[in-house]
Fold each of these.
Amino acid sequence: MEAIDVLLTRRSVVVANQIGPGPDDAALEKILRAATRVPDHGKLAPWRIQILRDQGQAALGDLLARLFVAQYPQANDKQIAFERQRPQRAPLLLVVATRLRHDHKIPVMEQMLSGGAVCMSLLIAAQALGYCGQWLTEWPAYRPEVARFLGHDPETDKIIGFLYLGSRAEAPEDRPRPDLAEIVSEWSGPVGADTVERV
Ligand SMILES: Cc1cc2nc3c(=O)[nH]c(=O)nc-3n(C[C@H](O)[C@H](O)[C@H](O)COP(=O)(O)O)c2cc1C
């Protein structure tokens, strides 16, 4: 498939519709190489990617179940089991975090955006190789306990994506996309004679 067709047909596959196999080692390496070629102002590589397979996914699930019970002591067994299962909903889980350099001249926002590009490229590369993925954050991305558990410093390392990768159980239906006319416009200069004075 042409690269443009991969982009024009890109769709996330929700974790509920993901099955095995996940990317094998050779495919995963290609996905990671593709995803770390993103634009990166200052060549900071301000992102980290962790690969969680069965054991890592289970360990993270145990933590999520514990955190959930601590927050909701009345939680029932089904809810707790769901939280334990959360990181295990796809064959492979990639955790993407930005490792931000607050002391650097490159604005933190640009470092974050570069991390977003990593996540997006992971999805595209996975789809290009015949796999599927979904980029989720959900509540665990925003809990410092989760970042610490994964070995991150929550001050500088922000979890920006849990990338669930697998194979699709069925082709997802397309969903409506934004009308280009609403979000794209031509701009060829300020309108009105006094606009420059008003800036
Ligand atoms: C940063 C980010 C975080 C997201 N987190 C969630 C999430 O927590 N839960 C969710 O249902 N979708 C989340 N999404 C949306 C899905 O990744 C996906 O875009 C959505 O299922 C629509 O599918 P599509 O990518 O084919 O348009 C997130 C998207 C982004 C960019």
Amino acid sequence: MSIKAVVKEHFSHSPISRHLNKHFLNAQEITIKNTNWEDINLELRRFSSDDVFQCVELFMRVFSSDPWFDNWLSFDYVNDYLNELILNPVFMGFVAREDSDEIAAVCFGHKKSWWMGKEFIIDEFYVKNDRQGKGIGSLLMDYMVDILSENDYKRLILTTNRNIPAQWFYIKNGFVNNENRVVMIKEI
Ligand SMILES: CC(C)(COP(=O)(O)OP(=O)(O)OC[C@H]1O[C@@H](n2cnc3c(N)ncnc32)[C@H](O)[C@@H]1OP(=O)(O)O)[C@@H](O)C(=O)NCCC(=O)NCCS
């Protein structure tokens, strides 16, 4: 049985929402069962300031790799960027931590109090390179959606590049392309 099949089976027998403590700040522990490889034990929880260093290191590693190959010059650049997000008064972050204490997935975003209801704008979403494709991103997304919907958020919004794996990941997780919107840039 493939890793992905086992993850799906795990989902269907024990949907994460059934186990979620409904308090906004509480964490959720979950295991991705896998017969051919080791199980992945995850703690899904809100971001805490103790996580910054690992989030910065992981961001550099993930986005310097395929398919992004971003040219972040140093740890300090990424540290500045992520801290700008964190210092936003309406910042919200979520992480998936493995029992090795290593962070395997991160989502940084912020609240937008729109007239149609509260929105969560995803600024960054990433999974550790060697943990991608094992269902961790989907679990973190489900965890976030449960918490956000419990707190009256109406939608999640993000931008990403076309025709890269992330696009298929978001589609798989229920996102749709908004045909009315364009992303516009003016170089100065
Ligand atoms: C994109 C990303 C967040 C997805 O998280 P993940 O844990 O790897 O994804 P999952 O294992 O939960 O995948 C769920 C679905 O996404 C799609 N998907 C994920 N990776 C894919 C890939 N490399 N190619 C095609 N589809 C892919 C598949 O539809 C998959 O469903 P399936 O298992 O039934 O095929 C993660 O791979 C990542 O961090 N990539 C690099 C950074 C990045 O691109 N971040 C997003 C920036 S906007």
